[in-house]
């Protein structure tokens, strides 16, 4: 059930963007959707060794800035599943890879917040505070 909800959420986010963007970007989004499903299967199988390579395939698609939100949301789902499985080291690697790929301040902010929560979950409070403070540099401005 949870996996179905995650996929539906991912597809709902991708469909509107695919309709608006150029053909190449729409193709990238469809490829990312299938990669996201592959990662879901690997998580189900507890085959954690292949997850980073599959996630890199999503990041290597080099999305247009307007689609970074979709990448960050997919990352959040993957990291949540890794956290539930106790795979914290791999979850950190996923967040760090995302940070090297996203450019928009909101994307960086969201990714850092997720990383800070991971640190907090492991009682690594000082490191969590540092990451939350770093996230503030990218916090969205109030309208």
Characterise the protein shown here.
The chain is mostly helical and 143 residues long. The chain has a single domain, classed as Tetratricopeptide repeat domain (Serine Threonine Protein Phosphatase 5, Tetratricopeptide repeat), CATH 1.25.40. Helix content is 78%, strand content 0%. Helix 1 (2-20) runs antiparallel to helix 2, helix 2 (23-45) packs parallel to helix 4 and helix 4 (68-84) runs antiparallel to helix 5 (88-101). The longest helix has 23 residues, at 23-45. The model is unreliable at 15-20 (pLDDT under 50).
Write the topology of this structure:
Elements: H1 2-20, H2 23-45, H3 51-59, H4 68-84, H5 88-101, H6 105-121, H7 125-136
Helix pairs in contact: 1-2, 1-4, 2-3, 2-4, 3-5, 4-5, 4-6, 5-6, 6-7
Salient structural properties:
7 helices, 143 residues, flat, mainly alpha, Serine Threonine Protein Phosphatase 5, Tetratricopeptide repeat
Tell me the distance between the termini: 37 Å
**Biggest β-sheet strands, sense, barrel:** none
Name the structural class. mainly alpha
Kindly report the average pLDDT value.
Answer: 88
Could you tell me the number of beta strands?
A: 0
> pLDDT below 50 for ≥5 consecutive residues: which ranges?
15-20
**What value does the Rg take, in angstroms?**
15 Å
Provide a brief overview of the structure.
By secondary structure, the chain is mainly alpha-helical.
């Amino acid at each position: 059930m949870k996996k179905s909800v995650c996929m539906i959420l991912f597809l709902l986010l991708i469909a509107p963007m695919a309709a608006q963007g150029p053909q190449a970007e729409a193709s990238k989004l469809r490829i990312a959707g299938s990669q996201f499903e592959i990662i879901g299967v690997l998580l189900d199988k507890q085959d954690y060794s292949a997850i980073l390579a599959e996630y890199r395939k999503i990041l290597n698609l080099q999305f247009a800035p307007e689609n970074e939100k979709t990448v960050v949301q997919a990352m959040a789902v993957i990291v949540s599943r890794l956290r539930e499985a106790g795979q914290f080291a791999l979850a950190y690697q996923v967040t760090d890879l995302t940070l090297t790929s996203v450019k928009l301040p909101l994307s960086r902010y969201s990714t850092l917040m997720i990383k800070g929560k991971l640190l907090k979950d492991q009682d690594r409070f000082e490191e969590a505070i540092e990451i939350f403070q770093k996230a503030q540099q990218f916090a969205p401005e109030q309208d």
